[in-house]
Design a protein that fits this description.
The protein is an alpha/beta fold and 243 residues long. It contains 6 helices and 9 strands. It has helices at residues 42-51, 96-112, 129-140, 160-163, 186-195, 215-228; strands at 16-19, 29-34, 56-61, 65-66, 74-75, 122-127, 147-151, 173-180, 199-207. The strands form 2 sheets. The protein has a 7-stranded mixed beta sheet, sandwiched between helices. Strands 4-5 form a two-stranded antiparallel sheet. Helix 2 crosses helix 3. It is globular, with a radius of gyration of 17 Å. The termini are far apart. The model has no long low-confidence stretch (mean pLDDT 90).
Length: 243
């Protein structure tokens, strides 16, 4: 029987917020939320409370590396590089460190060994670079996880060779993005479908890969949770409305 994770279960270097299931329910699932490039764990703490997923503990994790030059915020990459043409930070800068943090320090050593969760009951939700970190972790993990929700986060380039080895990962993935100016391109989808057995793509009728803005944009994610979460209570009807 899994138990509620505590902050003291995790390595002291990790910065995280733990949101227990609503109404004092016993946890059956864990949802790990990964913020975007340059953000902090607080960005998803309110979202976790709004979701109110039954029998599900949410862990909002802060990326392990701070941005340079006193920019504030944190990142999931192994390095920081800038695009010469625009001067913006690159998203895809290696994910070996974040994969080790997620798969060993959080999922393996704490959630599975200490708290006795099944891998099938552990899901990841990531935005932008956080979505890329979630996808990388799922590919590197040896067992099927509960699922991956990636908003604007494609398969990292450093994991493309694993997508071409012919062995598809069994963890289901839903990836969402805008109709234009999106990192979720057709080639990115092709790579994801080579790497994962089950990939659902949702293209929003707007440009860019921002977070869901309304009920209609959030609904595919909630339906994915309804299919993948192990819960006797079901998804609360009001959890879909973020407004």
């Amino acid at each position: 029987m899994p138990r509620q994770p505590r902050s003291s279960d995790f390595p002291s270097y990790l910065q995280l917020s733990i949101i227990p299931p609503p109404a004092n329910q016993s946890p059956v699932n864990v949802l790990i939320l990964l913020h975007g490039l340059g953000d902090t764990k607080e960005a998803f703490a309110r979202l976790a409370q709004q979701l109110a997923l039954p029998e599900t503990t949410c862990i909002c994790l802060q990326a392990p590396s701070p941005l340079p030059f006193d920019l504030g915020g944190f990142h999931w990459g192994d390095d920081i590089t800038f695009t010469q043409s625009t001067g913006t930070m690159d998203y895809d800068t290696g994910f070996e460190k974040s994969t080790r943090v997620l798969n060993q320090d959080i999922i393996g050593n704490v959630l599975i060994q200490k708290c006795e969760y099944e891998p099938r009951n552990i899901l990841l939700f990531g935005f932008g670079q956080g979505g890329m970190a979630a996808i990388a972790a799922a590919i590197a993990f040896k067992s099927e996880l509960g699922g991956i929700v990636s908003i604007g986060g494609p398969l990292p380039s450093s994991f493309l060779d694993r997508a071409d080895d012919g062995r598809k990962n069994q963890t289901p993935v839903i990836v969402l993005g805008g109709s234009s100016h999106s990192l979720v391109t057709q080639s990115a989808l092709t790579s994801l479908k080579k790497a994962f057995q089950l990939v659902e793509y949702v293209k929003w009728p707007r440009p860019g890969d921002g977070m869901p803005r309304n009920r209609d944009e959030m609904l595919p994610i909630m339906k994915f949770f309804a299919r993948r979460l192990q819960s006797r209570s079901g998804i609360p009807q009001d959890a879909i409305d973020l407004g």
